[in-house]
Amino acid sequence: MAGRIRKTLTRYPWLVCWVRGRLLGYAYAGGHSERAAYQWSVNVSLYVHARAKRMGVGRALYDTLFAILRIQGFVRAYAGITLPNVESVGFHESFGFTKVGTFSRVGYKMGAWHDVGYWQMAIQSSIGCPAPPQPLPALLNERGLQEALTSGSMKVGRDIETAVKAVDAENFAEAELEREQSGFTS
After folding, report:
1. Concatenated DSSP letters for 76-105?
2. Which of 95, 146, 165, 184 is a good FRET partner for 121, with 20 to 30 A between their CA atoms?
3. Is residue 117 in some structural domain?
4. Is residue 54 part of a domain?
5. Residue 121: strand, helix, or coil
6. Domain contains 145
7. Which domain holds residue 55?
């Protein structure tokens, strides 16, 4: 995972919602296609811990991600969603994504083949001849970038402490189960 993050950050944002040492979610962008004609398009991905859903984590991450992508000069975002996934589809459509198609049995995970639906969203206007998007490192001193990064954190729900406690409880329960299964007792 660390290698994926390092590689992504050479050009695109990878954001993390980290509260009191707990990972509650992350969002990132990546290239849509290597061909020059597609350089203004990105694929995006979002993960929110099950205990942190409906607390504003996903919305804060995506709001920040799209603000950064606009500053960089990207125009369209695409999201692939393993189907069925009503929750993720609803979340993306609430952001303005619209479905553009489905690839049947294209992804294999957890012992089964899955369909993946694709959604798209305009990040900004696609009128005229745009300048090439800027790689993220070239914008590290941009004021707009700093503002985008801080604005997202203000959108996380106030009850985020509930999520942190739930994650702690879940981690504790998993550690206890592992300890019991390994035969280790204190």
Report:
1. EEEEEEEES-HHHHHHHHHTT-EEEEEEEE
2. 146
3. no
4. yes
5. strand
6. yes
7. 2-75+123-157
Residue 186 pLDDT: 42
Ramachandran region, residue 56 (left: φ > 0; alpha: ψ -120 to 50; beta: rest) = left
Contact 163, 51 (CB under 8 A): yes
Q: Which parts of the chain sit beneath pLDDT 70?
A: 153-186
User: Identity (one letter) of the amino acid at 102?
Assistant: T
DSSP annotation of 185 reads -
CA distances in angstroms from 125 to 96, 119, 122, 152, 178, listed in the order given: 14, 17, 7, 22, 51
Burial status of residue 74 (CB atoms within 10 A of its CB: 0-12, 13-18, 19 or more): buried
Task: For residue 167, count other CB atoms closer than 10 A to its CB.
Answer: 20
Task: Please check whether residue 72 is in contact with residue 133, taking contact to mean a CB–CB distance below 8 angstroms.
Answer: yes
Question: Would residue 7 count as lying in a domain?
Answer: yes
Residue 54 CA to residue 41 CA, distance in Å, equals 28
